[in-house]
From TrEMBL, chains A, B:
<protein>
    <submittedName>
        <fullName>Rrf2 family transcriptional regulator</fullName>
    </submittedName>
</protein>
<dbReference type="InterPro" id="IPR036390">
    <property type="entry name" value="WH_DNA-bd_sf"/>
</dbReference>
<dbReference type="InterPro" id="IPR030489">
    <property type="entry name" value="TR_Rrf2-type_CS"/>
</dbReference>
<dbReference type="Pfam" id="PF02082">
    <property type="entry name" value="Rrf2"/>
</dbReference>
<dbReference type="InterPro" id="IPR036388">
    <property type="entry name" value="WH-like_DNA-bd_sf"/>
</dbReference>
<dbReference type="InterPro" id="IPR000944">
    <property type="entry name" value="Tscrpt_reg_Rrf2"/>
</dbReference>
Length: 161, 161
DNA sequence: GATCCCATACTCGGATAGTTGATGTCCGAGTGAGAGGGG
DNA sequence: CCCCTCTCACTCGGACATCAACTATCCGAGTATGGGATC
């Protein structure tokens, strides 16, 4: 029922990338040290983001990651599903069809009523995450943090090349 | 990210119980065979429901489970959380505090902005499940299924004592 | 000074473990209902 | 006919085994950059 921690890391990395100039690459190592997480494992999350087309990557020295789209075009749901895969809390195994007092030829409505309810809840969850993107979050952060704090962060990341 | 299948079983069992006369106990064995799931493992889910006060239980022969409240007072969220425990998809590990270019004395807002967004999504999910209860579902079922189908089901369960 | 080559730093992908949690099974203890025997 | 006891079916709770997924870690292959060597 809980998302893997790579999701948290991916979200924080995307936010960090959205603070940088759009054409700058940042290495996995820099992102890992910045967030205090294991570099090699974080790499898996970033690879998932790259595979989903949310970030660009370049090889070699000065290589690394940068956002592949504008911050307003990357929703939280995009990031979560890139790392976690398709998100669905409920998996219906159709146990209603095991009912021993119904004939095998009995007709069933196309979807189990219980599954329908659970899916509705999942949809509400996704809707909430789709409505939030990196640009909105960035604006919240610039309101909350001092310019100095933000600047120090971006400088630190860019100096680590 | 996925709920355990005990949640599905618990939901179906509660719906079945809500179809029965309120004072009738049904054994684990009957519920397990009715749904085609392992009896001993289903028992764990039912115990969780009993612990949460959603169902009553009696020992001995003719023992079993019955609803402890009126169907309209048992929401889907009650059942899900009884079996699954507190539901939360996102666990914030506060990696924002690992930022190496902030002093240790730096002040942080009480909640990580990213966690706030994720929690909002979780709340939307819970709100949806809180709005659905056993009575509403039961009314949906009586509309959808024939009286004969429902009657057969309750008779089968009651005859298995 | 221009060109070529090589070392370096990085990403990518696969292989490999350890740990946790879900899934499922088994068994003994406790309990209450009903049957059967004795008064 | 009444009461006691015994058996049985059931729940409860813990112990145990299995399996999948998450959480890492490590290493080799491939690639682009930049510096140094060569012409």
């Amino acid at each position: 029922m809980i998302l893997r921690n790579q999701v948290e890391w991916a979200l924080h990395c995307c936010v960090a990338l959205s603070e940088l100039p759009a054409d700058q690459y940042v290495s996995t190592k820099a992102l890992a040290e910045f967030h205090g997480v294991p570099k090699e494992y974080l790499s898996k999350a970033l690879q998932a983001l790259a595979q989903a087309g949310l970030v660009d990557t370049t090889l070699g020295p000065t290589g690394g990651y940068r956002l592949a789209k504008r911050p307003e075009d990357i929703s939280f749901l995009d990031i979560v599903e890139a790392v976690e895969g398709p998100t669905q809390t409920f998996k219906c195994t159709e146990i209603r069809k095991n009912n021993p007092c119904l004939k095998k030829t009995a007709k069933f409505s196309p979807m189990c009523s219980i599954a329908k309810v659970m899916n509705r809840a999942d949809e509400a969850w996704k809707r909430e995450l789709r409505s939030m993107n990196l640009k909105i979050l960035r604006e919240e952060l610039t309101d909350k943090l001092s310019d100095d704090q933000l600047q120090k962060g971006t400088d630190w990341l860019l100096s680590r090349r």
